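Teaching note: in complex prediction, the entire set of molecules is handled at once rather than each chain in isolation. The prompt given to students was simply: 'Predict the structure of this complex.' The entities are:
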Amino acid sequence: MKGFFQLISSVEFIELFERFHPLNTETIPLADCASRILAEDVTAPEQLPPFSRSTMDGFAVRARDTFGCSESEPALLNIVGEIAMGTSGRDIALRPGQTSRIWTGGELAAKSDAVVMVEYSHLLDEHTVEIFRPVAPGENVIRAGEDTEQGQMVLARGRRLRPQDVGVLAGLGITSVTVYRRPLVAILSTGDELVSPDQQPGPGQIRDINSTTLAALVEESGGIANRIGIINDDFDTMFTACRDALSKADMVLLSGGSSVGQRDFTLQVLEHLQNSEVLAHGVAIRPGKPTILARTGNKALFGLPGHVASAMVVYYLFVLPLLHRFGGMTADQGLLPIPAITGEQIPSAIGREEYVRVELVRPADGSPPVALPIYGRSGLLTPLVKADGLLVIDRDSEGLDKGAAAKVLLFPSLS
Amino acid sequence: MKGFFQLISSVEFIELFERFHPLNTETIPLADCASRILAEDVTAPEQLPPFSRSTMDGFAVRARDTFGCSESEPALLNIVGEIAMGTSGRDIALRPGQTSRIWTGGELAAKSDAVVMVEYSHLLDEHTVEIFRPVAPGENVIRAGEDTEQGQMVLARGRRLRPQDVGVLAGLGITSVTVYRRPLVAILSTGDELVSPDQQPGPGQIRDINSTTLAALVEESGGIANRIGIINDDFDTMFTACRDALSKADMVLLSGGSSVGQRDFTLQVLEHLQNSEVLAHGVAIRPGKPTILARTGNKALFGLPGHVASAMVVYYLFVLPLLHRFGGMTADQGLLPIPAITGEQIPSAIGREEYVRVELVRPADGSPPVALPIYGRSGLLTPLVKADGLLVIDRDSEGLDKGAAAKVLLFPSLS
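The expected output is the structure of the full assembly:
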């Protein structure tokens, strides 16, 4: 017996991450940078679009030439040319009463300031067009620099790049991008009862579920998982495996062996690693209480609960935000919270935050989803297969009534 | 002029996907199957857990031996052994008044039916323990098969595998998995004005943004993107490029050239491909009206709007659900809808659904997020960088008042 846990709150746990800083960076081709995290601010080297463009097929005009025209009294304009796509509109300069044909995306003719849609025109002959509707200056035009001015900051450091962000980079001609390195995460399962998933368990043995699950979680979060596999639950084996794993990783996840008990060497191992500091041993959440966090330098070591369902909650609450921090993300850490309605009464104990696996049922009228708790002990895995996310019950709440507003943290793969 | 579009509704558009069926399947190792789509139902070949397990460190007992005990009147039990991890608990059979030490995850001793937590025990000597709290039968035990019974269906065909699903497969010893093939998507940008992102645009030219953006979208959706690049806006070039792309892809995305205009050959090309059938030409949404859908056999061809912002809306509304269908997903197609509050009045035109780019602001009290429209013409890209999703305004609505309940489709990378 090593005594009781010293529980800290989940907020205090997250605050410990301030001891860690982002990993170093690498420069990669534009085509590979989607979903990576930007390591420097990007300012526009040039304006976008580079010239004023039509947003319609039709006629580039001087807007004032169309003022007051109508179906019954069309404006008559003289067609002085056509701006072929990919050629400069500035080769044509409109004088009063003149127009030129233009296509969507084409560069406006010099002295033109608006475009009349082809639908509101009628060709009288190849040199003359009737315009039925007036246009205001700037109408159906995206002006040069309207999307991005030269020198404007377009994407901030710490942003996870989405498809549209990558599009902006392409538009600005930025074809290599500096991003944070993906965190390397070593995964170890401890337990003399464990066998690999491809082996047939003998009496008292069970297949290792945590390595596979945690590796999939790490990859889902943008990290690189290194599955070390199963190690026996004795101090020397664990110490050596941890030390070796740590030398090649930014983070080590140890699962199993983190409750208070005779055979639990995780804490001892983490205490004995060179220059290690145990930052937390126990957190006031359920499930997930026996979580351990240690560090050596800028490397983190987690002791996760042995039950996979509990380990997964701890992963999403703590490991994911720290991976985001390692990865350089500045905003919006962790799972996405959405409002929901509690589907049935859920009791909870004072003194710990509770994370309840729930299924979301979305009413057809678009009102907030109803969160239905999925029953089953915390050690069971299949309730997680049904779950859409985790409903949060505060530390000081005795539970939620049916119909009460609640916060649900969505599992990532739902969207 | 080829005349006006024949607009169909977004619902009618989605119904067209019934003409397409899932791609073929492949069998891959368990370690690679996260986020892939399951191509067959998985039933449990054996029960999980394989034996009744303790969920606590403590003492395996016959529950009735603890009935009525308390702090002041503890039950005295005789310790007859220890169930070491990874050994069979059935080697020890408890008689009345006997107990054996057990650890979390250990197999229960024969004839024991509950576990007393170590916290509620006190060792008198190495053979005798005092128990302070009674336990009910089954307490602190996960019984054999409680997670999964043998023969039970655990994962259904058409499911996108999440980390917990992969964990279940590991637990059941299923180390190779049959999934649907990832859709191959060829991406072509048409337009004589386009140059590649790594080139300096000349007068009237602009960099191709759509290829990069669409490729990132396809990869985000689990497809494999094949960037064909820029092709000139003439019938022969487009026809040849489309035909060649189609021979090596499940889907072709053509962007640019799908509005009604002299230089728009997309429709003609799609009509002239061998055995092609144009299923839709125009959809009553904004942005995205000039969308074209065609098919040859089970292959799909999309003509997307030239503006990247419009193309992205069409991608999420239509291309993504069809990719999911190709990929074999049975549930929950497309973007995740969440309830939100309209942040300011948004007018809309009757007769078309409107998809408004919005930023979500989450109130600290956990109430639904407020959706603030991001202004900027549909041709602009940077408003998409700020957007969290698309607010939907129905076809028959003239707009939404400030404070009105609204549905927002979340962009995937937010969570």
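Point out the following to students. Residues 308-326 of chain B form the longest helix (19 residues). Helices of chain B lie at 10-15, 163-171, 210-220, 235-247, 266-272, 308-326, 382-386.
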